Prior knowledge:
mainly beta; 4 helices
Amino acid sequence: MLSLAVSETGFAQVADTLDLGEVVVTASKTPTTERETTKSVTVIDSEEIERYSSSSLSELLNEQNGVLINGAVSSPGKDKSVYLRGAATQYTLVLIDGFPVTDPSGVGGAFDLRLLPLENVERIEIVKGSMSTLYGSDAIAGVINVITKKPKDGRFNLNGKAAYGSYNTNDLSLGANGSAGIVGYSVNLSREFTEGITEADPDGSSGFNKDGFERFALTSQVSVSPVEQLSITPFINYSRYDGDYDDGAFTDGANTYEADLLNTGARLQYKTGDLEIHEAATLTNTERKFTDSFGVFNPKASLFNSDLYATYNKFSKVRFLAGFNIQNLNFELDNINEGSSILSPYVTTYLESGFGLNGELGLRYNNHSEYGGNWTFNIAPVYNINGQVKLLASLSSGFKAPTLNELFGPFGANTDLKPQKSLTFDTGVEFHSADSRLSASVIYFRRDIEDLISYDGSLGYININEQNDSGLEVSAEYQFPTTQVKLFYNYLDGAITQDGEETDNLIRRPDHQVGSSINQRFGENLQAGLSGKFVGQRNDLFFNSQTFTNDEVELGSYVLLDTRVRYNFLNEKLTIFASVNNILNSEYTEVYGFNTRGTYFKGGLKFSY
């Protein structure tokens, strides 16, 4: 089988004429080409991130196949819910540079995407399908790996951005990076603040207060290579967020939300011959503070993650990966100070037959300090019919450990909770033309989750019910000499089983989504893009204060159309960019009782030296 030579591994072989696509790391924890991966992977590279200089991380993710970020185009400071393949937010694991940043104090432990500015990001890899065998808890639907900017060649490189947009939005950043001898460094600072819109005033006629936010963020790392085979990279990622929010649907409020994220640690890589050893120790501290008419709610949490793994590439058609993961989690709130730990050995084998059939076999054991142990596995065969067509399938189990809030929190805590467990089946076909201009894929998935953790008003948190989801993802991309065209279609179906009865419960998630984009280059310096998205009808739940029940409401379908342009000067050292979102001024709702944005603008300039 033809494959692209990949740096730092001896597993791939050189192809003379066939480009096998970008090298990705998240899908296997080792450099692997997109066409060699056994999972469905979406790569957002630095060029695409540059095209979205006016956007937030949530807005960019919301443009991707199989992803819906609820709240991405609502009030700028509204909370963001990640629906990867239609799964609830808690089932997608967010990584920074390959390592988890979950918030153990939150409901479901989901990470707050508002804490990460896009300007500090170099690349994003989205892997769909259960990834618990490699990454442990929470990766039932998949993982989103946000890769921060790395040191570049040259002793000193400077870059910056200044932008202004609707709602008095200001977006500023400044970064420096470089390398000399055995040392490389990268530092990026960013600050964004906006007046925002009235969050809970859908028709804009009630005169509610505007709900804005301010965020400051820092990413920094230093890479040291004392010898050729060894690199050590300490890093610090810090973010501070302050925002306003209303009391609820159609209800104004002068509430404030503060959040602090500190993600720090060090990564180590050592290679000798066919053996590579990786170790990363990371500490993630999160603190959130809600201030409203009920008082102050101020949870704090920490996650220590140590991941030691090694790959062995002695044999041309077999690659071994084995690792040991330690996670210590802690939760503080008022007089509560509790924690838990997970110890997980895991192993994965990558096999190549020589006649097109490849595969991945993985197994992981998770020992949790509260509920005991559980296993996860991954079986993923891939058949390359030729250099252009790949058939893939996988059967993977996953799990989500109970969060510290569910185990020890102030409301309905239950230390007898079991982990939520999943089984996911994926199958499909991918096509890449010989000249790499055309790529297309059709993927079907089925995901079953049992022992769902639900909240009961009289019993608190309990394991109950079962969730069954399935869907279809169709995508195509064609690269003309100066034009890139992308299309995708998503179908989603799902239901929860309660007391033996199935109920459609995919709240805020549509059955149908369609997305498209066209990016055009005019000469060497001017680029323009047009993107559109159709989101079908879906249901939402609205708490009725008159009857004290959750009423179901229907949210109408909508179409959003955005355009963006950028022009480079001085050999791409200076760039002017602008975007207009929702150019049709569509009226739509993401969350019942909350506002969304009409047509809005943002523009500015970037420089590099």
